[in-house]
Amino acid sequence: MDFFRPHPSAAFEGYYSKFTLESGSHIILIFCTVRNAPTRPHMLSFTYIPYHASQKDIFQREIWADNLHMTPIPLPERQEFPWFTRADPFKVSIPSIASLASETMDGVEYEVCGRDLDFKFSAKSGGRVPWIPSSPNSTPAGRFASLPLPLQWHVHSRASFCRYELTLPPSVKLLPEDLAGNARVHIEKNWGQSFPKSHIWIQAWDEDTKRGFCCAGGRILGMEAYLLGYVNGKVGSVREKRGYVVEEKALVANFRPPWTLRVGGWSPFNTVVHDWENRTICMSVSGLRQKIVVSVTAKEGSFFELSAPFADGHRPKFLAESFEGTLDIDVYERSWWGTWRSIQKDRFEDAAVEFGGENYPLRGGEDYKSK
User: Fold this and answer.
1) Which domain covers residue 271, as residue numbers?
2) 55 and 70 fall within a common domain
3) Which H, E and C letters describe 158-196, residue by residue?
4) Low-confidence ranges of the chain (pLDDT < 70)
5) Considering its fold, how many domains does the chain have in total?
6) pLDDT in tens, 182-211
7) Are 60 and 82 contained in the same domain?
8) Separation CA 221–CA 217 (nearest Å)
9) Hey, is 33 helix, strand or coil?
10) Contact indicator for 40, 31 with CB cutoff of 8 Å
11) Are residues 226 and 304 in the same domain?
């Protein structure tokens, strides 16, 4: 099933794309709709974050649109895609402002060029890097992704190659090398009833070694649940060992409920500690054969705010995100004797870290706190 396509029956759905430019700068582009919301139902969010910039150098525009359409794209000749992709081309558009088009089973095309906007952005991605490298149709939730749960999360691509062009107002501190070029884009999709009351999100990718980590989860319906996955190495890569060519497969460690489910703040398999004051998240999850320990700390002052979708509409400044996290990962394997043995330690610099809802004490700004 193609989970990236629109879900018309969902109360809300959003498309999140994080572009990592060759300079280390980032662009965040979000299309999101809360159907039948009384306030701020449709959002286009654009944020440009220069590499290791101060908050005053970040350029952000959040546009509350009157309409957001999701429509299929007719094919000139009914092109048959491989059965395992079930790709249906579609377009998400905000009239006269912006669009996102999934025109093939892999590529996504972006266009932001409204007449009344003071910035322009366009990009076109190439092939996907799926959640599990060897499984084109994989998704973090696995079989749970087809169930009518309150919230769903899909990673369409961990890091697709793309080309882009960017125009910002003259007053913005735009690095010259960021005007146009190549980038890697991480593409996600959310849909369901609402964002959780509280949540966290972590993401990192190293293109040279095909290493990556991604995690999302939080509290909803009185419980906590998380989805997370680590991958190290390129499937089908080869190396020479003692004169022989040896095929190596990626180390893949994925975790989902029941292993990541917490009821009443407790689980025998999962511990989570999030500390906004120290900008730190620590997590440990164990399954039958694998265990992962994760710790990430982001630099204070590196966070910027984004809006989040709830049943009443988008709530401004309801989550904080940083791209200056240091992420440490330790993957374990259970021995036949039942003890855990560390098989892979890893570290990512400039990882993405997000605190949302009640995990972000400054949510909503002063106007929200006064209510």
Assistant:
1) 195-371
2) yes
3) EEEEEEEEEECCCCCCCCHHHCEEEEEEEEEEEEECCCC
4) 1, 75-87, 103-106, 234-248, 366-371
5) 2
6) 999 999 999 999 899 999 999 999 999 999
7) yes
8) 13
9) strand
10) no
11) yes
Residue 258 pLDDT: 95
Say whether 284 sits in a helix, a strand or coil: strand
Q: Are 33 and 68 in contact (CB under 8 A)?
A: yes
Q: What is the CATH number of the domain that holds 23?
A: 2.40.370.10
Do residues 146 and 49 share a domain? yes
| Helix, strand, coil percentages, rounded to 5, for the chain | 5, 55, 40
For residues 78 and 174, membership in a common domain is answered with yes
Final residue belonging to a domain, choices 193, 211, 230:
193
Residues 113, 119, 125: CA angle, nearest 5 degrees? 60
Tell me phi and psi for residue 178, to 5 degrees: -95, 0
**In terms of pTM, does the model score above 0.85?**
yes
Arithmetic mean of pLDDT over the chain:
90
d(CA 226, CA 17): 20
Same domain (yes/no): 269, 229: yes
The pLDDT score that the predictor gives to residue 368 is 55
- Among 174, 193, 212, where does a domain finish? 193
Q: What whole-number distance in Å separates Cα of residue 229 and Cα of residue 364?
A: 30
Residue 370: predicted pLDDT: 41
